[in-house]
Amino acid sequence: MDADFEDLSHNVELISRLKQLYQATLRFEDRIDLANDPAIYDKLSNSDKIKYNLLMSYSLNSMFWMYLRTEGIDPTKHQIKNENDRLKKSMERAKQINDKNTLMPRVDKNAAQRFIRNSLWEPKVNEKDNNENK
C-alpha cells in the first residue's frame, strides 16, 4: 500500500512540475511576442539593437537546449553548445565595445577652442608703452 501512495505522490509532483513548466512557457511566449514588436525595435539605438539581437539569439538557443534535455539528448554533445559559446563571445565583445565607448574620455570642443584661442592671443601694445621703452 505504501508503494501505491508513493507512486501517486510522485505522479502528483510530476504533474505539478509539468503545469509549472507549461505556465512558464506561456509567460515566455508572451514576452517574446512583446519583444518582437517592430515598433519597439525601430526605436532602439544601434547599441541596443545589438544587445537585443544577442539576447534573443541566446534565449532561443537556451530554449532549444531545454528542448533537447526534455527529449533525453545531451546538449553538451550537440552543435547548440558551440553556438551558445559563440554567442557568449559575441556578448563579451559587445560589452567590451560598449564599455570602451562609455568609458572613453571625451573632448569638450568649446573648451579646447577657448584654450587654443587664449594661448594664441597676444596683447595689443599701447603706444605709450612703446614710447617709454625707447
Give a quick account of the main beta sheet: strands, pairing sense, barrel closure: none
Unreliable sequence segments? none
Mean pLDDT: 81
Number of separate strands: 0
Give your account of this protein's structure.
The protein has 134 residues and is mainly α. Among the domains are: 9-43; 54-106. Helix content is 81%, strand content 0%. It has six helices and no strands. The chain has helices at residues 2-35, 38-43, 46-70, 79-103, 109-120, 127-133. Helix 3 packs antiparallel against helix 4 (79-103). The longest helix has 34 residues, at 2-35.
What can be said about this structure in brief?
InterPro entries: Exosome-assoc_fac/DNA_repair (IPR011082), Sas10/Utp3/C1D (IPR007146). By secondary structure, the protein is mostly helical. It contains six helices and no strands.
